[in-house]
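Handoff note, outgoing to incoming analyst
You'll be picking up this chain. Sequence as last confirmed:
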Amino acid sequence: MSSRWVRFLLAILCGLALGVLYGWVISPVEYVDTTPDTLRADYRLDYVLMTAEIYHSEQDLDLAARRLALLGSAHPSQIAAEALVTATHLGSPEADRLLVQSLAAALLNWEPSPGGGAP
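Most recent structure output, in case you need it:
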């Protein structure tokens, strides 16, 4: 192998090393003001659980559905059902699973009311 190729490969390796150092150590990506639909599955479950707890005390299905709509474009009952699957997979307490299940069941036949505002 000629010294020309060795210098080329060393330059590539140094560039890669400096790029990784800059991207991971000096200036890593910081996520700020992201929307709830970008949450990890366990945090989505927490959000749905909090919504289910509020629904349990307020019994306002429209407001609960609008809160769940922040997690994506799927029907709110589907979002709650996915959270229930996550809760089962993660071994959440039975009381939490029952709250989410109750919300999901209530949302099965829910249709948006005309003129609904923001949560």
